[in-house]
Structure formats: structure tokens, C-alpha cells
Design a protein that fits this description.
461 residues; alpha/beta; Rossmann fold; UDP-N-acetylmuramoyl-L-alanine:D-glutamate ligase; Protein-Tyrosine Phosphatase, Chain A; 3 domains; nine-stranded mixed β-sheet; 36% helix; 21% strand; MurD; EC 6.3.2.9; UDP-N-acetylmuramoylalanine-D-glutamate ligase activity; cell division
Length: 461
């Protein structure tokens, strides 16, 4: 039955939803309070879809049978409140797309590690020859891909915002990596509400589905009982645990054991991760989750090991970008919160020259103090206001200095580092004081490393 569907927000997910809704015979109107990027405007115009930008015309929006909302629009926005008052259903792009595909969806969420795990899972499945699409929070619209619906599988990165307005969407595999405080302003500053948003990923699983989750995460343990699930439960841990029938755990630094029928030891498969380029303890967790997804999809030990060895992570996530005088420079610009920086400091075993700073998001640095004390030789504060970093770490690290120049931060990092050390950009903060975004910050870091490396080589003759 044809409906009038209004799409709020005209970026990747909104435009994809609009194109899918129109392809399925619905009347579509798109409204964005901000200017629409030229690329998306062209797509809407080419499809003959009506749209407005720069404002929301409530009279038109409130005539909708159903509204698809961009994940960026908060519940407290006036337009959403008006829709709630009129009891007009509001759904997400993922909910809409799920109605029109029979493909098996592998859905991944968590506060940290979502993108790496999603890209790795997609890579493993694709390299093994499966017909697989990549979508969700990694920047590709699921709805737009579902128009042609040519894949047997989709691997989706889902944020809590994308999960908020799902109701009947049913993944085949749901992955929950971790839950730590983030975006709490969207959840009434309640960690419990944020956790429940994440756990929505598992609530529609049935006996043919799989729930892969981190048994080491305290918040997941605490809130897990709120999910009544008939699914096959596949918990994982960094260590073998007698209190759990684990589906995956490490038996050595670079070796993991997987067992899709926990308790039935005959079905276990040992996999070497020695070929993987990923760095750090959190990436060992991400790898476990991705390998379990691959096992559920039927991949062999050889397919998984060769896929791990050919994977290259997304930029700005613990990404080695060069070496100067024997010191390795690592770009972790995506680490915009304390937890992400903790994973970086915890995962790197060599002495660290740490470049951090930016726009503080109310950070509590307490959890980083022991790591800073044991691993960090010097802290270079890169930001306009570094007082909180200085107060937190000034008495902990042997050397602290500050700058507002990326080139200076890299030069000083090279000068302070000994051969074998790591110069780590893991800012712990948002980037908006000195940079456009975390990508811009990471690109400037990589460029400065390349420039200084070349300069150093020229000077050295």
C-alpha cells in the first residue's frame, strides 16, 4: 500500500531512504533544516523527489503516514516532538531498509571498535568469495543498496542513534563489542538508557540468529538480562574463563580458539592472528568478534587467516604512518574519548611519546593515569586550552610541553623519541579547536610525519 513518507535529513542515510521509498511506490518528501550537499541534491533532483532545505515545513511534515529520521536528529528536536504529539510513526533508515531485503545482516555496535570490526568482518567475508555489501555508520546507505538488493549478506556498523528507531528490523548476527559512557547527552545522562539503546541490536533475534558479545565488559554483563533472546549466544573473552562457555578466546598472544557450540569441544577451530596488522588489546577483541562472524558465515581456518593478513584498517585508527630515526609514528586521531585513548596506551608495549589534546568533552582522565605513568615518556599537548591535561598528567609524565602546531608536535615527538619508541597521536579529545574534524587532524599528522621524515633524510644527506 502506498504511503506518504517524509524523510528528515538529506545526507547519506536520508537520501538512500528517499530513493528506496520512491522505488517501492511511496510518495516521498525530504526535509533538511541545513543546506543539502550538492551530491545529494543532484540525486534527489535526478529521481524527481521533492525536497526542502534550510527549514522544516511542519504543515507538510505532519501530513506524513510515516517519517524516516536521520540518526543525527535528537528526540528533543521540535519537529520530532510535533510528530510524537500527532502519533505519526518515526523510524530509522535501517528499519525501512530491513523491510525490503531477505539478505542476512551482520550488525555490529559498541562504543569503541565498531568501524574496525565492521570493516574486518566485511573484508573476511568478501575475500572468501561471499556476496556481501557494506553499509550503515561506515558511510554507505543500506536503503540505497536494498533498491537493487544484489547481495546475500550485508555487514552493518550501527550506532546507538541508528538503533533508536528500529522496531521490527531483525539481524542474522548481532555483535555488541563494549558499552562505555559516550553520547550520554542523548540519553538523559543515563548509562542504563544508553546501554539499552545498544542492546536493541539483539532484541529481535530468534533461534536462527546469533548474538556475539564481549563477556569481559562489565556494563554488558549488568544490562544483558534486559534482553530476552532465543538466539544462539556466542560470548567472547581475551582469556579462557571457567565461569563461561565461551565461543571465542585467546590461547596465546596470536592464537585464538573458536567454538560455535560452546561446551562441545569437538567443534572448536584454532586460528592464528599472527598475520594481522592490527595493534592493541582492543583490536584483539575486535578481531575475535569478526572471526566469530566469519565462522558463523561458514569460513574455513585458511580463509580467515589469509583474510586477516590482507586487511588494512580505516585511516586514523591506530594507523602506522611512518618511521623517523627508528621511532614509529602512529595516527590514532579517531580516539576522541578517554576509552579510545586508553585502548591505544594499553595496546602499545613500547615507550610512548604521546600527542594529545583538543576540545575536552568533560573528560575524566583518571583511568589513563596508571598507563601514562608506566608507558609515557613525554606528553605533547596539542590544543588551545591544555590546562586540564597539564593538571592531570603534569606530575605523572617525566616531560610535558604544549603547542598549537601539528608540525611542531611531530618535530618535537621525533626529537624526544629514541629508536624503538612510538610517537602516538591519540588525542582523547574532539578536534574542533584547531582542526576541521578528526580526519583533518589525522591527515595533518601523517603529512607532517612525511614532511619531517623527508627533511630529516635530506639533512642527514
Amino acid at each position: 500500500m502506498s504511503k506518504k513518507i517524509v524523510i528528515l535529513g538529506a545526507a547519506e542515510s536520508g537520501v538512500g531512504a528517499a530513493l528506496l521509498a520512491q522505488a517501492k511506490g511511496h510518495t516521498v518528501f525530504v526535509s533538511d533544516q541545513s543546506p543539502i550537499q550538492p551530491l545529494y541534491k543532484e540525486k534527489l533532483t535526478a529521481a524527481g523527489i521533492r525536497f526542502e532545505e534550510g527549514s522544516h515545513t511542519l504543515e507538510e511534515i505532519l501530513t506524513a503516514d510515516e517519517v524516516v529520521k536521520s540518526p543525527g536528529i535528537p528526540e528533543k528536536a521540535a519537529v520530532i516532538q510535533a510528530l510524537r504529539d500527532k502519533q505519526i510513526p518515526v523510524i530509522s533508515e535501517i528499519e525501512l531498509a530491513g523491510r525490503y531485503t531477505q539478505a542476512k545482516c551482520v550488525c555490529i555496535t559498541g562504543t569503541n571498535g565498531k568501524t574496525t570490526t565492521t570493516l574486518l568482518t566485511y573484508h573476511l567475508l568478501k575475500e572468501a568469495g561471499l556476496s556481501v555489501g557494506l553499509a550503515g555508520n561506515v558511510g554507505y546507505s543500506l536503503a540505497e543498496q536494498v533498491i537493487d538488493d544484489k547481495f546475500d549478506y550485508y555487514v552493518l556498523e550501527l550506532s546507538s542513534f541508528q538503533l533508536d528507531d528500529t522496531y521490527d528490523f531483525r539481524p542474522w548476527v548481532s555483535v555488541l563489542l563494549n558499552i562505555t559512557p559516550d553520547h550520554l547527552d542523548r540519553y538523559d545522562y543515563s548509562l542504563e538508557k544508553y546501554a539499552h539503546a545498544k542492546l536493541r541490536i539483539a532484541r529481535n533475534l530468534d533461534s536462527s540468529g546469533y548474538f556475539i558479545y564481549n563477556a569481559d565488559d562489565a556494563v554488558i554483563q549488568q544490562e544483558f538480562t534486559s534482553v530476552f533472546s532465543e538466539a544462539n549466544l556466542l560470548p567472547f573473552s581475551l582469556h579462557h574463563r571457567p565461569d563461561y562457555h565461551l565461543a571465542g578466546y585467546y590461547t596465546a598472544e596470536n592464537r585464538l580458539c573458536t567454538n560455535l557450540a560452546p561446551g562441545m569441544e569437538g567443534r572448536s577451530m584454532e586460528i592464528s592472528t599472527a598475520g594481522s596488522p592490527l595493534i592493541g588489546q582492543h583490536n584483539r577483541q575486535n578481531t575475535l568478534a569478526a572471526v566469530l562472524c566469519a565462522r558463523v558465515a561458514g569460513l574455513s581456518e585458511q580463509q580467515i587467516e589469509s583474510g586477516l593478513a590482507t586487511f588494512r584498517n580505516a585511516d586514523h585508527r591506530l594507523q602506522p604512518v611512518g618511521e623517523i630515526n627508528g621511532a614509529t609514528f602512529i595516527n590514532d586521531s579517531k580516539a576522541t574519548n578517554v576509552e579510545a585513548a586508553w585502548y591505544a596506551l594499553d595496546g602499545i608495549r613500547q615507550p610512548i611519546i604521546w600527542i594529545a589534546g583538543g576540545t575536552d568533552k568533560g573528560n575524566d582522565y583518571t583511568s589513563l593515569l596508571p598507563l601514562a605513568k608506566s608507558r609515557v615518556k613525554a606528553l605533547i599537548c596539542l590544543g588551545i586550552d591544555n590546562e586540564k591535561l597539564k593538571a592531570s598528567f603534569g606530575s605523572i609524565v617525566p616531560h610535558l610541553e604544549e603547542t598549537q602546531s601539528m608540525a611542531t608536535a611531530v618535530r618535537r615527538g621525533a626529537e624526544l623519541a629514541a629508536p624503538g619508541d612510538v610517537v602516538l597521536l591519540s588525542p582523547c579529545c574532539a578536534s574542533f579547536d584547531l582542526f576541521k574534524n578528526y580526519e583533518d587532524r589525522g591527515r595533518q599528522f601523517a603529512a607532517a610525519v612525511a614532511d619531517f621524515g623527508n627533511e630529516g633524510m635530506r639533512v642527514g644527506g
